[in-house]
Amino acid sequence: MNTGKITTGPFPDGRRNLYRILAILVFVLCIAGALSVPFYFETQTLWYKMGSDKTMLRTGQLAGMLALVFLFVQITLALRSRFLERLFTAASLLRWHRINGLFIGLLAVSHVLLVLVPEGLSNLPFGKKHWPEMVGMLLFSILLPMIAASHFRQKLKLDYHRWKAVHRVLGYLVVLLVTIHALYVSESFEHESLQIALLALFGALLVQVVIVKRLFDASSGQRTNGHSG
Amino acid sequence: MSTLRRAGVLFLFFLFVTQSAFAAARSWEMDKAHSNIYFSIDHIFSKVHGLFNEFTAEVNFDPANLAESKFAFAIKTDSVNTNIAKRDKHLQSADFFDAAKYPEMTFVSETITDAGNGLYQVAGKLTIKGESYDLTLPLKLAGIKDHPAAKGKEVIGFNGSVILDRLAHKVGTGKFYDMGVVGKDVDVLVTLELLADK
Description:
The complex is a heterodimer. Chain A has helices spanning 15-40, 44-47, 51-79, 82-88, 90-116, 131-151, 160-185, 192-218. By secondary structure, chain A is an all-alpha fold. Chain B is an alpha+beta fold. Chain B has one domain: Beta Barrel (Lipocalin), CATH 2.40.128.110. Chain B is built from three helices and eleven strands. An eight-stranded antiparallel β-barrel of chain B has the order 1-4-5-7-8-9-10-11. In chain B, a hairpin with a 2-residue loop joins strand 7 and strand 8 (119-128). The radius of gyration of chain B is 21 Å and the shape is elongated. The relative contact order of chain B is 0.17. The interface between A and B is medium-sized, with 12 and 15 residues.
């Protein structure tokens, strides 16, 4: 079990708290930005929904945007860069990663139900011309078992190393799928500014994965893996 | 002539007369690539055009035997296509066609009358969302000729249009019409090419 010690020494006094606040501020800004999308870049689909259908659809869109942010954050947490470890400790990053995973599951279920119910559950978007929605279905069908397997790994007696290898690959896959899904399913993302923002975030995550992975490989002996099973 | 022979001749005559009177009109097979059911409807100021990708047409037609001629169309409501997938999904929902509950619309002719100049008034029953309505579809015979590209085939063409009040046929409750967003009159254009062996 990871002890939660700061692996590479603390920041100078005062600076750590400042960086912590800045990191939390970036997270809050990302959430606020994501939540503003269904209002600021309202989809035409919302124009043609009324009453409870409209409320459900908008709430579903909000849940989807939150899930998107949380998925990006999830990868960042899983990478456990030295910078974040020094700010928050490895143990708290791991704890946050676990809780975040459950939130992602809840948000994904809410998103699917709240978006599909107003259009009718007997009117599901299957077929080639609804491929972005089907990417979402694929994403959902990967995400839920992934969360369940992680949460009940010990009860299910899953081998830690095998589970971790699969979990890591699927983690990268779901982020790729959620980016494609958001870019092509939502009319909001037809706006160039949003496309650029999402692709920039995806690019930043990719850079982070490559850089952190390289650092991790270089100093793999020094890092703890959070293995609790 | 013996009684038996007389009865035989009468039987053959009866057979010939009934065969002629009840002979089905010539059967035509739809050329799917060149037959379409298009529609257009007002949206605030503009017109939205669409079509149904999947439908069947059973056609028996002979200008000299209209009594036995027949048109029967079956349209898959979930094949509605306006070139925007999300709008198509909305059209398939309970707000419009309710495609899950009513997967087909049909039109079956009952009588066909020659209105002159190649125009035929095809009267029949239009069934939408489980309810049937009388409808007369005017179809203009564009012509019959040897198919220019397919040897041994003849091609017949029909074009016709009709305006349907979608609200009278319960395609929508009227909420979008009351908002001034979606019109109620739908221009429907039926354009057919049908093939038969010579």
